[in-house]
């Protein structure tokens, strides 16, 4: 039996899965936490990988790391870390994102060159912040790489001059083009002011090196691309991930270049593309309304399903703590249609419909970039809600499938490791278990109520 290891190095923790290469069956697993915060010493990820992978990595014939995207790991001439890595959720570089966009061609030019409209998440903006606010650290910096690149380098035991990345993670930097498959040197110079050593972009199924125990090391990937690979997404498949935030992503044969910034034009882990929409408000919307109603998960679901579609005219715009898609950082939630006849059931239903409608906006934005969802997979913590499952088809207008709960990012990394071992043209096809399929008719009333409220508040915000 051939075993491979898949690593998910996320913002909060490291998860390691030991998997049977031919079938995808999980043999063993480990986990270790990361420090909290929006910056982190990369050494903490390495220590967590050693802890989570103890007794697992030495049994694997191949390993791959799927990591949190966009983080900036700056190294000096001796390959020492210059400062703690700035993570994707560190927003201090928002002014630099605005300046770079305004001074160098506007959103259309950045989208055309890199598939992205700059936001504080992306690595290019963090490099600009480093150059402006920490010139001494910037002067020391010789190489820059992403979290999964650094961990892959450590696993291989090589120098930064031999470091590798993959298409998916490179596509989140703001200085690599999914369309051409190459770095955009001009964009890096605009961000940092001089050249830096960047990791080589490896082929998706390449063996980029060996660990100290002789295991093959695959290129690794970004976390969303890892999840797509773990789920087995193909062209036309779209995943709606309902965690603290919401993520809508799918596999496409053509690159996205959305000048509105709603869709990030990432690459995937197989040679295709992974357009992605991120919303700030998803599962926490339901958590908020459960608290307001003073009920547990089961009772909340019962209340929501007891109300009719449209929630008695009650509509929630779920921008509780601002929103990223659309770009409304200072927005708050809005409830419309509240009358003396409103019930607890209506309020619960409105919360679910509002949260799902925000994700439906993501599906619409994807369709505008050429990815019409033929199949929607519902994943993430809130996908366990029976109300969410039953209401989603009517809001999305298509049937949904709910795959079994699993660590799909780590599973995708393991699949890449198995793929690199075989060297075959396509990744292995692993069964993910029984998938629940839920059907339903599109509820035009829900869509109309939500669109009216969204557009009215957008117009009001624009004039105030």
The largest pleated sheet is described as: 7 strands, mixed
The dominant shape is globular
- The radius of gyration computed from the alpha-carbon positions, rounded to a whole number of angstroms, is 22 Å
Strand content: 15-25%
Total tally of structural domains: 2
Count of individual beta strands? 24
At the fold tier of CATH, the topology name of the largest domain is Nucleotidyltransferase, domain 5
Any idea what the CATH architecture of the largest domain is?
2-Layer Sandwich
Q: Helical segment tally?
A: 15
Supply the helix-strand structural class.
Answer: alpha/beta
GO molecular function, one term: D-xylulokinase activity
Catalytic activity: D-xylulose + ATP = D-xylulose 5-phosphate + ADP + H(+)
Active site: 223 (proton acceptor)
Domain Carbohydrate kinase FGGY N-terminal: 4-220
